[in-house]
Every structure is written in structure tokens, then in C-alpha cells.
Design a protein that fits this description.
By secondary structure, this protein is of the alpha+beta class. It holds the Pfam family BPD_transp_1. It is a multi-pass membrane protein.
Length: 425
């Protein structure tokens, strides 16, 4: 304090006033308000706290906060450590670190909007599903005509699994045509004109085509001029419930089955008409929380990398070289020397991210769509919805705020003790 405590008080007074107005008073008022009802006039004691722990939405928020607390700091720190170590010896390390750290310059609002688009279900819009569908389609065929089907009068019966089977059996030398409708215009826009199949001795032949004439007209069940072929349609010959032969329609819509298909019924598997693979529902109820955590990691992995890289620069190189001289490989050097020496820095990163994660709000609010927002709920979002949503109850919201403060306090205390220990060294 020195010889002039009044001077110290004058300098501290503005900071103390701000601290009291922006921190102490809101905390005290939130605790006070949590004991009153929604109107703020009736004292209800601990009823808000009982309602909070009996409310399904709050239970989901607590569960999701635990998931966030475990996954987000761990994954961000692990990636930051990997990036810092792997880029230590490359020439373009600075450029790489700049790219990884760049998301930190983006606000949570902007990052949320970016990842809302990244996770868009439509592969033509969402980057994540565009990549996922591209990989999937590289190893799996896409159905040729989603939504197509025969006319009710075409002589085919629909099975419960979505396949279509002819009522009559087929004979060799007698072409069996299969007219279909309801194909999407884009799926047949570049197709060849349908061609009537020629009868072949000892073989079953036919044509699969789009039985629709542009502008109307034409005859149902007959291949009219300008009607388009339907290529790559899978056709099965079925006898007594067993598939005896298979084929695929050609570019002109014709197909050929061997002699053993005679006397069989023709079946068009449901795969021909199923919807194409549309990727993963990233923002669906089941994986919406991990998807949002992924966006958080994208932002904060750069923060972890920069701090760890700074700590790594202070690790004595003599220890690493001595270990290598003693025959240790790179993994052993990393596990037994690098990580233990970086333990103080890693603890700083993890604790900082834990405090940050406990207050996560904006990413969840922006990225999670309406139908999935309840499944992605976290305490900060539940606090906002209870205090300012449709059913306003600031008593319940204040109780959630107190709970969030109590959950953050242990982590803050650990962090303060760590800082004090570091300052004594």
C-alpha cells in the first residue's frame, strides 16, 4: 500500500466500480432473483431449482454440456499439439499456422453461419455432404431413375419393398416391353430415343422406356416417336421366388435375358427407383452436438496450436537430442519428453477451453436448426430461452445462471491456483 493508501484507492476506484457494476451486482441479483417466481413478486424458495432439475430440456442441456466439456477441449488441444509438433521442422510452418489460426479472427456468429451452410443436407449446397456423397458414390452406384414407376395398367404389381413384378411370365422370342412413367426430366434429358427390341430365338428380350410423349398424345404401352429410353435399369427374372437371371437395360432401353429366363416373371428391384444417397443428416437430432463441436474445434484448434508452439519453443533441445542419442525413436521422444515438458502449457490450454466451453451459446443457437435445437441444447442457451424466450420465466433463468456459475467456479479456482503456483517458481 505504501505511504499513500488514498492514492491507491483513487486509482483502484474506477476498476472496482466497473467490477461491481458488471460482475458483482449481476451475480448477486441473479442469486436473489432465482428465489422468486416468473413475475418477480412471489418468493418461491428453491422451487426454481427443483423445476430446473425436473425439466427435460435442462437435463438435456446438462448432458450436452458434459459432452462439450469432454470432447471440445480434448480434441482442440490434441489437434493443437499435433499441429505444433509436426510443423516444427517444415519451412512453411508459419504459413500453415497462420491458416490454422485464421478462424480465430472470425466471430462466433460468422463461424456459425459458415458451418450452417457447410452442414446443409443438400449435397449441392453443403460442403460436408458434397464431399461425403462424392466418396460414397465412388464405391456405390446411384439409382438411375428415382421416383419412376409403371402405370397401374402396365401389368406390374408393386411389392411391399418397392419393387415391381410382372403379372405374366415371359417367353423367349416374344419381346416383353416395360413402360415407366414419373421419371425426372433431368434424368432422361440426354437419353437416346427408345428402340423396340427385336425377338431373338431362345432369349427373352424387351425394352424399358419412358412412356410419355412431350406435348401429350401418343399411345400408352407403345413406343412412340421421340419417347426416351431408360438405360441402366436392373431387371431380374424370377421363378418360384428365386432369381434365375439378371440383366441391365442398354442405352437404347433394350435388354436381353438368357433362355433360362423363359417362364419367369420380370422384376424391377426397388433400387432402380429409390432416392439417391443424400449424405449424412449432420444437423439431425442424433449427431447435431458432435457436428457443432466440430465447428468449435475448427475455430479453437489454432488457439491451442499457437500456445503449445510457444511452449514447445522453450523445451530444451538438449534433452531431445540426448534421448535420440540413447536410441529413442520420435514417438518415444514425443511421449516421454515433449509431452511431459509441455504439461504446464497443455493444462493452461485445456482449462481455458473448459471455461470457454461451459459458456458456449452462439454456435449452438445459430447452427442447430429449429427441429434439432432441443437436442443440441446447452445451459447457456437454456438460460436464454428461459429468460427471454416464448415462456419467459426469469426466476428459472436466474437459477440456471447460478448453476452455470457453480459449474464454472471449480475450473476457475483450479486455474487461479495454477497461476499462483507458476508465479512462485
Amino acid at each position: 500500500m505504501g505511504t499513500r493508501p488514498w492514492l491507491v484507492a483513487v486509482f483502484l476506484l474506477p476498476a472496482l466500480v466497473l467490477l461491481g457494476a458488471l460482475v458483482v451486482y449481476p451475480i448477486g441479483y441473479s442469486v436473489y432473483r432465482s428465489f422468486f417466481d416468473a413475475s418477480g413478486n412471489g418468493f418461491v424458495g428453491l422451487d426454481n431449482y427443483q423445476e430446473m432439475f425436473s425439466d427435460d430440456a435442462t437435463k438435456t442441456a446438462i448432458k450436452n454440456n458434459i459432452i462439450w466439456l469432454i470432447l471440445a477441449p480434448t480434441v482442440s488441444t490434441a489437434l493443437g499439439l499435433i499441429f505444433a509438433v509436426l510443423t516444427e521442422r517444415v519451412r512453411w510452418a508459419t504459413a500453415f499456422k497462420l491458416i490454422v489460426f485464421m478462424p480465430m479472427a472470425i466471430s462466433m456468429l460468422a463461424a456459425g453461419i459458415i458451418f450452417r451452410l457447410v452442414y446443409e443436407q443438400d449435397p449441392d449446397k453443403g460442403v460436408a455432404n458434397a464431399m461425403w456423397v462424392s466418396v460414397h458414390d465412388s464405391f456405390s452406384e446411384s439409382p438411375p431413375f428415382p421416383g419412376a414407376h409403371p402405370r397401374p395398367t402396365a401389368g406390374l404389381d408393386e411389392s411391399s419393398n418397392g419393387s415391381f413384378t410382372t403379372k405374366d411370365t415371359v417367353r423367349a422370342g416374344d419381346p416383353a416391353s416395360i413402360p415407366l412413367v414419373a421419371a425426372k426430366r433431368g434424368d432422361i434429358s440426354g437419353a437416346q430415343d427408345a428402340k423396340a427390341a427385336e425377338p431373338e430365338s431362345g432369349k427373352v428380350t424387351g425394352t424399358v422406356w419412358f412412356d410419355f410423349t412431350k406435348g401429350g398424345g401418343g399411345e400408352q404401352g407403345a413406343i412412340d416417336k421421340g419417347e426416351k429410353a431408360m438405360a441402366d435399369v436392373k431387371i431380374e427374372a424370377v421363378k418360384d421366388g428365386k432369381v434365375v437371371a439378371r440383366t441391365t437395360s442398354a442405352a437404347d432401353g433394350t435388354y436381353t435375358l438368357p433362355a433360362k429366363a423363359e417362364g419367369a416373371q420380370l422384376r424391377l428391384p426397388a433400387w432402380n427407383f429409390s432416392e439417391p444417397y443424400n449424405g449424412v443428416d449432420w444437423l439431425g437430432p442424433s449427431i447435431v452436438t458432435p457436428a457443432i463441436i466440430g465447428s468449435y474445434v475448427w475455430i479453437w484448434a489454432g488457439f491451442a496450436m499457437v500456445l503449445i508452439a510457444a511452449g514447445l519453443a522453450g523445451v530444451p533441445r538438449e534433452l531431445m537430442e540426448a534421448a535420440r542419442m540413447d536410441g529413442a525413436n520420435e514417438w518415444q521422444v514425443f511421449r516421454r519428453i515433449t509431452v511431459p515438458m509441455l504439461a504446464p502449457v497443455l493444462s493452461v490450454v485445456v482449462v481455458t477451453l473448459m471455461i470457454n466451453v461451459m459458456k458456449i451459446f452462439d454456435l449452438v443457437y445459430i447452427i442447430a436448426p429449429g427441429p434439432s435445437q432441443d437436442d443440441a441444447n446447452v445451459l447457456a442457451l437454456q438460460l436464454f430461452q428461459s429468460s427471454f424466450g416464448t415462456d419467459v420465466n426469469q426466476g428459472l433463468g436466474s437459477a440456471i445462471a447460478v448453476l452455470l456459475l457453480l459449474l464454472v467456479l471449480p475450473v476457475m479456482i483450479i486455474n487461479i491456483r495454477r497461476i499462483r503456483r507458476e508465479s512462485r517458481r
